[in-house]
């Protein structure tokens, strides 16, 4: 591995801690090797969740990689999430304890509320808000104890964020949501930036659906730079200051997705990609907008 190719930039969170700008998304990764490969090839941020059912695998492979490559615990940033079936104070505490045990890494760098709604409730049920408040209180207590370093949210829309900052004792450091060149939530991004909350994108490749892989603008830029479309998209995320979580289960793809050092798109190319987001609403993941 040519270390000089590995993208190592970090971003500073609103609590003063740092997070690698490019992380490894663990969703739907069933085998253990990809987590090991991720650390082997230079990722220092692994994004898991209770819902992914791979926290223990992530922890095992992180320890294995740290041992083999001489890394310390503080060199690896571990994220997990409270799923919508564990919302509320007691259930959130229960899930945190399970996650801490699963990872077995001493502490969790960042824990997110995975979704603003609670499983099984109608979208307009006021208990969504109550459960979010209680879950947040539980997470704040784990920050106080040092077992979680940072807390944030996922899939929050602007009204969820505005509401959260009103009752939060500890401010959310990130909001993780679907974001790619063909789906840009400008209002959510604006709200996050207003409150100094880092924008973190999942599904950055729109699941490699033909709608994005066959997009003529992206294909043209890919040819121009002799880069695969995945890295073109990642460079767009980086240029816009987003924290991005590419995912793959293929060793060579995992390696290439982090080999971004020294690469950049021109302002003209970035403007072309930015224009795509103005004209497309190609959403591929779940939508929280109607949840009270």
UniProtKB/TrEMBL annotation:
Keywords: NADP, Oxidoreductase. GO terms for molecular function: oxidoreductase activity, acting on the CH-OH group of donors, NAD or NADP as acceptor. Substrate binds at residue 114. Residues 38-276 form the NADP-dependent oxidoreductase domain. The keyword Oxidoreductase applies. The active site is at 52 (proton donor). Belongs to the aldo/keto reductase family. This is Aldo keto reductase. It comes from Stylonychia lemnae.
């Amino acid at each position: 591995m040519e270390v000089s190719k590995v993208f190592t930039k970090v971003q500073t969170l609103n609590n003063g801690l740092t997070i690698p700008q490019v992380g490894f998304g663990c969703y739907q990764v069933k085998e253990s090797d990809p987590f090991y490969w991720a650390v082997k090839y230079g990722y220092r941020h692994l994004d898991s969740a209770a819902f992914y059912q791979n926290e223990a695998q992530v922890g095992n492979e992180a320890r294995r990689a740290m041992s083999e490559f001489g890394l310390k615990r503080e060199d690896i940033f571990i994220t997990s999430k409270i799923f919508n079936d564990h919302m509320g104070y007691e259930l959130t505490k229960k899930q945190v304890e399970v996650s801490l045990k699963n990872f077995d890494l001493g502490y969790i760098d960042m824990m997110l509320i995975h979704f603003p709604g609670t499983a099984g409730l109608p979208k307009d049920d006021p208990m969504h808000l109550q459960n979010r408040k209680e879950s947040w209180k539980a997470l704040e207590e784990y920050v106080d104890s040092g077992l979680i370093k940072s807390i944030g949210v996922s899939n929050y829309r602007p009204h969820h964020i505005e509401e959260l900052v009103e009752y939060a004792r500890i401010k959310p450091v990130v909001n993780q949501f679907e974001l790619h060149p063909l789906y840009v939530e400008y209002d959510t991004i604006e709200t996050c930036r207003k409150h100094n909350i880092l924008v973190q994108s999942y599904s950055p490749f729109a699941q490699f659906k033909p709608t994005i892989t066959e997009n003529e603008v992206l294909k043209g830029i890919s040819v121009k730079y002799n880069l695969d479309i995945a890295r073109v998209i990642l460079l767009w995320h980086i240029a816009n200051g987003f924290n991005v979580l590419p995912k793959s289960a293929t060793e060579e793809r995992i390696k290439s997705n982090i080999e971004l050092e020294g690469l950049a798109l021109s302002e003209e190319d970035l403007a072309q990609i930015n224009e795509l987001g103005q004209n497309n609403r190609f959403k591929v993941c779940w939508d929280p907008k109607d949840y009270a």
